[in-house]
């Protein structure tokens, strides 16, 4: 199995890449989106990385969900605490939750790892959305053209 990691963009300490997989035996190809978050772990006294991935067929759903958060959810002011999220088959999550008069945005790269949260603000969601749209364009452009 061959893997190519193609950088698409970065927000704070979060890197977003397109991954192109190629089976060297039968030449089957597949693509995904990879998220890598680096943070300092004070307990271990070192920099750590967390990884998450999203199958290419789930990318459109993530883009639509973040767009909906930006255009509808962030403009609402719920009376009670509210959470909105997108969850992939692999456990990657993008979501937001209400605070009095505001919304907080986050990504969770692994649903079973509390240290995989990437805490972002509403403005970062626009950057993430732009990078994901670029990723989608790159996936369409690449198709099966990478060796």
Write the layout of secondary structure elements.
Layout: E1 2-11, E2 14-22, E3 29-41, E4 46-55, H1 59-71, E5 83-87, E6 93-99, E7 102-108, E8 117-120, H2 122-142
Antiparallel strand pairs: 1-2, 2-3, 3-4, 5-6, 6-7, 7-8
Structure description:
The structure is a single chain. It is built from two helices and eight strands. It is of the alpha+beta class. The protein has a single domain, classed as Secreted effector protein pipB2 fold (2-Layer Sandwich). A hairpin with an 8-residue loop joins strand 7 and strand 8. The chain is globular. The mean pLDDT is 91.
Short key terms for the protein model shown above:
2 helices; alpha+beta; 4-stranded antiparallel beta sheet; 147 residues
Provide a brief overview of the structure.
With 147 residues, the protein is an alpha+beta fold. The protein has a single domain, classed as Secreted effector protein pipB2 fold, CATH 3.30.2450.
Low-confidence stretches: none
Number of domains: 1
The profile of the biggest β sheet is: 4 strands, antiparallel
Treating each run of at least 4 consecutive H or I residues as one helix, how many helices? 2
> Mean pLDDT across all residues, rounded?
91
CATH class: Alpha Beta
Distance between the termini: 12 Å
In percent, how helical is the residue content? 10-25%
Strand content: 35-45%
Structural class: alpha+beta
Which strands sit side by side, in order, in the main sheet? Answer: 1-2-3-4
Give a count of the beta strands, DSSP E runs of length 2 or more.
8
Radius of gyration: 16 Å
Find the CATH topology: Secreted effector protein pipB2 fold
Gross CATH architecture: 2-Layer Sandwich
Shape verdict: globular
**What order do the helices and strands follow?**
EEEEHEEEEH
